[in-house]
Amino acid sequence: MAESSQNVREQLAALLPRLRRFGRTLARHREDADDLVQIALERALTRTDQWQPGTRLDSWVFRIMQNAWIDETRARERRGQTLLAEEEGEHVGVSTTDAQIDAIAVRKAVAQLNDDQRAVVGLVLVEGLPYKEAAEVLGVPIGTLTSRLARARETLQALLDGPLGARA
Amino acid sequence: MNWTDESLMAFVDGELDTDQRAAVESALAGDVALRARVAALQTQRRRVSAAFAGVLDEPMPDRLASLLANAPAPSAAVVDLSAARSARAQRRALPAWAQWGGMAASVVLGMLLGAQFAGRAGDASLGVRDGRLVAGGTIDQALSTQLASAGGAPVAVQLSFVDRDGAYCRTFSTTTLAGLACRRDGQWAVQTLAATSVAAEGTLRQAATSLPREVLDAVDRRIAGEALDATRERQARDQGWHR
Predict the structure, then answer these.
(1) Between chain A's N and C termini, which has fewer beta carbons within 10 Å?
(2) Using a CB-CB distance cutoff of 8 angstroms, which residues of chain B are in contact with residue A102?
(3) Which domains are assigned to chain A?
(4) Hey, are the CB atoms on B9 and A99 less than 8 Å from each other?
(5) Mean pLDDT over residues B73-88, rounded?
(6) CB distance A10–B44 less than 8 Å?
(7) What pTM was computed for the model?
(8) A107 in contact with B at a CB cutoff of 8 Å?
(9) What is the pLDDT of residues A136-165, one digit of tens each?
């Protein structure tokens, strides 16, 4: 038991960079994202026995993160607090590459999606989860997942380029 | 045949089975507009993925790394070697990112040496003599005079021991770096240097007493027998670390 909990801890450590990345798609802002990862890790560590070996550990923690994020946004709404706006301090300098400029534009567009859509985009397009895994993380039927993903993509494309397909 | 956005999306995301996939592929062959729709979806997937890829390479905040590291920080200035060993054993299990501290060390060292060569060596804590990295300034002073039990000093000294060559060695740490130095020709020759994990945050000064893995490993490679107890350490200091 102690052994397997240590094992989970090590696997979580290996996942940490990806957890931060998923946090960034949910939370828009680095500080909020890292707070979210911290909260989720603390929760995960107290219930490592609930993770079933043989299932994906990343999905398990993503689900904890997603739930923690919902809790957090609701709590802040109750307190009348607003979340930090999208990442500040991202500016285009003389040495900024085209790829960096594009990355900033894409992150801005993702930040404008609603919470549900950002979660789907983060899980499928960024983390590369199969639809079935992503649907389980979010606790929705697969049909709901695919329609959310389709709407999120349409919105993203409109924000970035105009109608889907205009830029091939 | 009309292809829905959702079915093309599933194609791009690798969600179709072999038959469905083959159907889309054969349709693509003769349909320029369809190819454009698929290409747009593929481009979008690539762009979104690339937009967040940089997060993976960002330095890990200490508060997240330490949640999972679970290495007990030595509470007293005198570190029990077996405790240090078990702490090291736990750290050894950490994945690659946990070793960033070690990579940063070369940067720290470069900066320190850079300051040396720039002629600002007056209070430098490390220097080069006869091609060897040696302790100077406050680090030299701490290694030569400070007992491991001393608290509140700018340089903490944790372990003292005799190495396999019969020389005294001591570990030390500051808020930014930690290392192992052994007595050679009247100097503290630095054997190992690593960045302390708190350097990035700079908030936990006292945590600098917890030694990086590289330093503990270096101790393990060199130590002959056990670490000196407080009495033997005091005797060694009073004899000027001669053997």
Answers:
(1) N
(2) 47, 50-51
(3) 2-161 (1.20.140.160)
(4) no
(5) 48
(6) no
(7) 0.56
(8) yes
(9) 999 999 999 999 999 999 999 999 976 554
Q: B105 and B21 share a domain? A: no
Cβ–Cβ contact B49 with A under 8 A: yes
Cα separation, B158 vs B218, in Å, equals: 14
Q: How confident is the model at residue A2 (pLDDT cuts 50, 70, 90)?
A: low
**Does the beta carbon of B64 lie under 8 angstroms from any beta carbon of chain A?**
yes
Shortest distance between the Cα of A77 and any Cα of chain B, in A, equals 26
ipTM of predicted complex: 0.89
DSSP string, B80-125: PHHHHHHHHHHHHT--GGGGHHHHHHHHHHHHHHHHHHTT--TT-S
**Highest mean pLDDT, choosing among A37-51, B79-93, B142-156:** A37-51
Instruction: Answer whether B64 sits within 8 Å of A34, measured CB to CB.
Output: yes
- Best probe of the A interface among B15, B35, B44, by most A CBs < 10 A, is B44
Q: Does residue B38 register a pLDDT over 70?
A: yes
- DSSP string spanning A88-157? -S----TT--HHHHHHHHHHHHHHTS-HHHHHHIIIIIIS---HHHHHHHHT--HHHHHHHHHHHHHHHH
**Residue B243 domain flag:** no
Is B131 a residue whose pLDDT tops 90? Answer: no
Structural domain for B19, as ranges: 5-56
Q: Please check the confidence at residue A17 and state whether its pLDDT lies above 80.
A: yes
For A167, the closest chain B residue by CA position comes to: B40
B164 shares its domain with B212: yes
Q: Tell me, yes or no, whether B190 and B217 share the same domain.
A: yes
Among candidate residues B40, B56, B72, the one where a domain is terminated:
B56
| Number of domains chain B contains | 2
pLDDT of amino acid A99:
85
According to DSSP, the β-strands at B168-173 and B156-162 are antiparallel
Alpha carbon distance A149, A131 (integer Å):
10
- Specify whether B109 is located in the same domain as B20: no
CA B141 to chain A, closest CA, distance in angstroms equals: 38
